[in-house]
Amino acid sequence: MNNDLLLYSSILLVGVFISAVSQVLLKKESQKEHASRIKEYLNIRVIVAYTIFFASTFLSIIAYKGIPLSWGPVISATSYIYVTIFGVCIFREKLSFMKIVALALIILGIFVYSFFG
Hints:
79% helix; mainly alpha
């Protein structure tokens, strides 16, 4: 793998990760009571979360300049891993057997594509 490919893949990976962080911010904010509908959408967490989403999209645009289009969905699939980890650690969600199997299949698919695809 050449250095440019590694750089652009890393940029997309960072973008996917910060997108997952943004989702966590939005979920945390949605669990709060707000005084009005405006305050529900115009508060610092929501604004920061959408700013992060914008940055994530921008990073994706940059990344696709240097990686094959077919790699995008594979790298983006890592978001399921991040969101699951955040769900368990931050929201105390239960990790069922089926979720573990699904995550294992996602990870297996990423490795198969990375090494044999």
